[in-house]
Amino acid sequence: MDHVPLTDETEVVDGVHLAVLAAGEQMNVQHFRIEPGATVPTHDHPHEQAGFVYEGELVFVLDGGAHRISTAESYVIPGGESHAAENQGEATVRGVDIFTPPRVNPDWAE
């Protein structure tokens, strides 16, 4: 069994930090930290994505609208759905995503 410390995170775009916490054959678990004002650019991927925000508020832009996910709320984004995420608040957003099949490196990262 592998153990990955949260300190192994990578800044993939300005203010967006990711760390793969665990990865198996069928899914992986990824921690995210998004600084105030930072944006995950619009992208899509074949992976189904389920997540949970445990600190802050994250705004997803998809389906032609904005969807706010606050502390202690979860979400699911179907594979193939174009989306972006923004931290429009003044606090850092922290949460966890699960991707199936596993996604290690997002294609939108610099």
Q: End-to-end distance, in Å?
A: 30 Å
Strand-residue proportion: over 45%
Mean pLDDT rating? 90
Q: What's the count of strands?
A: 10
Structural class: mainly beta
Helix count? Answer: 0
* Main beta sheet strand tally, sense and closure: 6 strands, antiparallel
Using the alpha-carbon principal axes, give the shape. globular
Radius of gyration from CA coordinates: 13 Å
Strand order in space, largest sheet: 1-2-3-10-5-8
Q: What are the segments in which pLDDT stays under 50 over at least 5 consecutive residues?
A: none
Fraction in helix = under 10%
- Provide the succession of SSEs: EEEEEEEEEE
Could you explain how this protein is built, in words?
- The protein is mainly beta and 110 residues long.
- The protein has strands spanning 10-13, 16-23, 28-34, 39-43, 48-55, 58-62, 65-69, 73-77, 83-86, 93-100.
- The strands form 2 sheets. The chain has a 6-stranded antiparallel β-sheet with strand order 1-2-3-10-5-8, with no helix packed on it. Strands 4-9-6-7 form a 4-stranded antiparallel β-sheet, with no helix packed on it.
- The N and C termini lie far apart (30 Å).
- The model has no long low-confidence stretch (mean pLDDT 90).
